[in-house]
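To: structure desk
From: M.T.
Subject: fold request, one chain
Message: Could you run this one when you get a chance? Sequence is below, nothing fancy, just the single chain.
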Amino acid sequence: MELVNVEKKGRIGIIVMNNQKALNALSEKFLGELNEAFDVVEADSDVDVVIITGFEVEVEKDGVKKMKRSFIAGADIKEMLPLTPAESIRWGKVGSDLNLRIENFKVPVIAAINGFCLGGGNELAMSCDIRIASDKASFGQPEVGLGITPGAGGTQRLARLVGAGIAKELIYTGRVIKPDEAYRIGLVNRVVPAEELMDTAIALAEEILKNSQVAVQQSKRCINFGLQTDIQTGNAFEQQAFAVTNGTEDKKIGMTAFVEKNPVKNFVGR
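Reply: Done. Structure tokens follow.
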């Protein structure tokens, strides 16, 4: 992969989007490499949490040093410009399918958002389980200013996350917002100083890893399924997951440790 790096820190898979020239703008090649990156972490049975983030490099211009960073600055407009309606459906489906894959990925996915998170970038971030924003990040769905609609889940996930009224305001105006507003409306879970972003994401991943991963993954399935159905059906699905986890070794380990007041829980993931 040329535009995406995959790293590993213990049981944490870290995907770093590194298309610096285009500020991680989403092209068909870039989307293909992101899918390949998720293939890599999915194939590693030791990875129980994934963090996805953008590049961050120090650059110097006119003798002044500054950080250049981006999560995803949007779609590659030059690649999109000549597309016909039929071609755009195929192009948009690539991004939409990737976001659905991330949303339904077996293990939790944390977005560590360190810069531009616009258009397709915001759509990808919303497909992640948890979003942590740097104080240098920015968010928006500016597609209407280009004469198009969001095409990879923006109209659907934004309304589910922040409510229809706020989603409509942001999409209709194409306004770009700062991280403090993104936190206020519920688009991100927390905002931290830029230099603390990855440490915060890793600390959160490690907190998740202390628990039974069978239970964590079943909980993710229940939440995602429940958001798409009525409460009665969602509750029935949850009861099935509850039954599954009650038959695991992790349940015996966790409950025995609780009864014995033992703070050490060596979960085995089965």
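Reply (cont.): Residues 85-103 form the longest helix (19 residues). Let me know if you need anything else for the meeting.
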